[in-house]
Amino acid sequence: MILASSIPAYIGFMITGCCFNVFTFEKLLEIDNKTTNLITFAQNIFIFLAISLYLAYTHYWDNRKARLSITSWNVAVPILLQTLGANVNNFVFQYNLSMPTHIIIRSSGTVTTLLLGWVFFNKKYTLRQIIGSTLIAVGTVLFTLNAGQQLESSSRSSIMGVCLLLGTTIMNSGLSLYKESIYTRDGSKMDWKGALYYNTVYGLLFYIPLVGTIKQELLSLWRSNQSFGELLGWNLVTQMSCILGVNLLVFKVSALSFTIILLIRRFLSLFLSMYIFETPVGQWGIFGIGLVILGSLTYSLNNNRPVSVVKKDQ
Q1: Spatial distance between the Cα atoms of 227 and 232, rounded to a whole number of angstroms
Q2: What single-letter DSSP state applies at residue 61?
Q3: Which residue among 180, 241, 243, 260 is the one 20 to 30 A from 12 at the CA level?
């Protein structure tokens, strides 16, 4: 049984790992922004090996439910789509999208979660939830715009990247709501350890056609930049911490709360990056920080989960 008191620990675990992971990811992209395939492939391999050893050590597969749960389409399909979305989110950097632009577009996740939850999942949100999530999204956008980087020009490549990112943002919002409904109805079918394992298995399948490209990227970078290996090592460790926190939380809090946590994490990642690289913060940036803090306080004051309206059969 997961105690509510353990949720803040999971949040801290995720935010710490994810923030430093973004920092190492940015440093790797500074060396070569065409290495996202190599980086994400290495992350998948590392996490796959780690979770496989853990499941073997704990005799996870001895449990019949664990072996059979993935055969259910309502479990397998969301995991496959989540893996696809995660890979697309990293792949879009090859379309000349900067990290601030990436964060701005992903900030729409709170709004899409609210709308999808209301329209398709019969959820009712309180006024504090709506105001709080909106303030956090607006504050993050304002702070991100202050990062000193111009949004990309409307080239065909950039437009394609924006469209892909918007599509995966909407899809991830829907998946979070769907997982919440499945876990509420039958929590025994959803297990974070099995979900993480199959996420990495499905993820590795996406890289089969890219093996040659990944090998060339690795050889080229290893010869040209000696610090790449060390940075990649730190990126793998922090990614493991980040992904563990995400998978521990995804079935323990509501879809909207999960989206809010991810948005705050992205805000903190950008804030840390700007602090380390000594990027100046203007008035709008300070105003954005204030909105994020105010929105977080407003949302946290709401202790009630959104109500699902159950329609009775006529």
Answers
A1: 9
A2: G
A3: 180
Helix, strand, or coil (residue 4): helix
pLDDT of 234: 94
With CA atoms as reference, report the closest residue to 93 among 173, 165, 17, 42.
Answer: 165
Q: Is 144 in contact with 103 (CB distance < 8 Å)? A: yes
Going by DSSP bridges, is the β-strand pair 307-308/123-124 parallel, antiparallel, or unpaired? Answer: antiparallel
What is the pTM for the complete model shown? 0.73
The total domain count for the chain is 1
Among the residues of 148-191, which ranges form H helices?
Answer: 156-185
Q: Which residue has the higher pLDDT, 35 or 223?
A: 35
Stretch (H or E) spanning 123: strand 123-124
Instruction: Identify whether 91 is part of a domain.
Output: yes
Instruction: Assess if residue 189 is contained within a domain.
Output: yes
Confirm whether 151 is domain-assigned.
yes
Domain housing 208: 11-305
Task: Summarize pLDDT for 24-54 with one digit per residue, the tens.
Answer: 888 887 787 778 888 889 999 999 999 999 9
Give the burial class of 171: count Cβ atoms within 10 A of its Cβ; 0-12 exposed, 13-18 middle, 19 or more buried. Answer: middle
**Residue 203: C-alpha distances to residues 37, 178, 213, 218 (Å):** 11, 20, 16, 19
- With bands split at pLDDT 50, 70 and 90, how would you rate the model's confidence at 311? very low
**Is the residue at 215 inside a domain?**
yes
The DSSP string of 83-97 is: HHHHHHHHHGGGGT-
